[in-house]
């Protein structure tokens, strides 16, 4: 199994730098072995951000052969995939209840649009794009990182069946290239890049402040307009009431003649 270096000839950058990372907003292509060596760092506890070297990672893509299909309970099912790296990855499928589906059809849908779980009368089946999933099927899976009893899982968000050996080979080549070109090299933010990041943050804050000011100004003008409109309506109503009373007085005076 892959291991991260025990020594760290790199630094961890502040979270405000992460948007400039090549991995932070990407589906990071990992082998199963590398997936399990992702680490949490104390400075970023509770943010569900893992690291390979100093690369911040939230989203992961793996490609492998399905070696196990498990019906865990009414809320979860799981697939285990093996990519030949010396480790496997469990893909957690979150199921939706019949009440959430708004249907009484005995098919349990999932939070993934093209994945269904059918569990009824002794039948258990998982389909992807309406194709039944079997042991030996190759899948390309994308998800977020979670842990269960200290073991990392990939909570499935997107998945597709890899239909040809050429597509499978290409996917594994992409994973190898991404590790070689990106992950194996510590992420570095130059002084110039750091200045650009700070300037962008400052500009974003300025725009946000200006936007908030426009919203406040709009609310003040809206309040003033509504107040003037209400005052105008009260004035019109007062005039109508005065006219009505005057007319009543005239009619009453006429009736006394």
From TrEMBL:
Keyword terms of this UniProt record: Chromosome, Coiled coil, Telomere
Gene3D superfamilies with a match to the protein in the record: Nucleic acid-binding proteins
Ranges in coiled-coil conformation: 201-252
Keyword Glycoprotein (UniProt): no
Presence of the UniProt keyword Coiled coil in the record: yes
One GO location term (cellular component): chromosome, telomeric region
Name of this chain's protein: CST complex subunit Stn1 N-terminal domain-containing protein
Organism (species): Epicoccum nigrum
Phylogenetic lineage: Eukaryota, Fungi, Dikarya, Ascomycota, Pezizomycotina
């Amino acid at each position: 199994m892959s291991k991260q270096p025990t020594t760290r000839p790199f630094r961890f950058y502040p979270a405000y730098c992460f948007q400039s990372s090549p991995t932070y907003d990407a589906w990071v292509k990992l082998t199963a072995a590398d997936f399990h060596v992702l680490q949490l760092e104390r400075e970023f506890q509770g943010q569900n951000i893992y690291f390979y070297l100093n690369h911040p990672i939230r989203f992961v893509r793996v490609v492998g052969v399905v070696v196990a299909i498990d019906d865990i309970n009414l809320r979860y099912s799981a697939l285990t995939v093996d990519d030949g790296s010396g480790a496997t990855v469990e893909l957690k499928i979150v199921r939706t209840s019949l009440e959430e589906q708004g249907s009484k059809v005995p098919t349990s849908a999932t939070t993934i649009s093209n994945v269904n779980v059918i569990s009824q009368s002794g039948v258990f089946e998982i389909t992807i794009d309406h194709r039944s999933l079997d042991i030996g099927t190759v899948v390309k899976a994308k998800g977020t990182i979670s842990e269960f009893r200290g073991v990392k899982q990939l909570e499935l968000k997107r998945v597709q069946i890899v239909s040809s050996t050429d597509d499978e080979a290409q996917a594994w080549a992409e994973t190898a290239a991404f590790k070689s070109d990106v992950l194996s090299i510590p992420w570095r933010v130059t002084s110039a890049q750091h200045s650009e990041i700070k300037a962008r943050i400052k500009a974003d804050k300025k725009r946000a402040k200006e936007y908030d000011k426009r919203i406040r100004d709009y609310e003040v003008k809206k309040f003033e307009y509504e107040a003037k409109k209400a005052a105008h309506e009260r004035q019109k109503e007062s005039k109508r009431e005065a006219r009505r009373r005057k007319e009543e007085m005239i009619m009453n005076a006429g009736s006394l003649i």
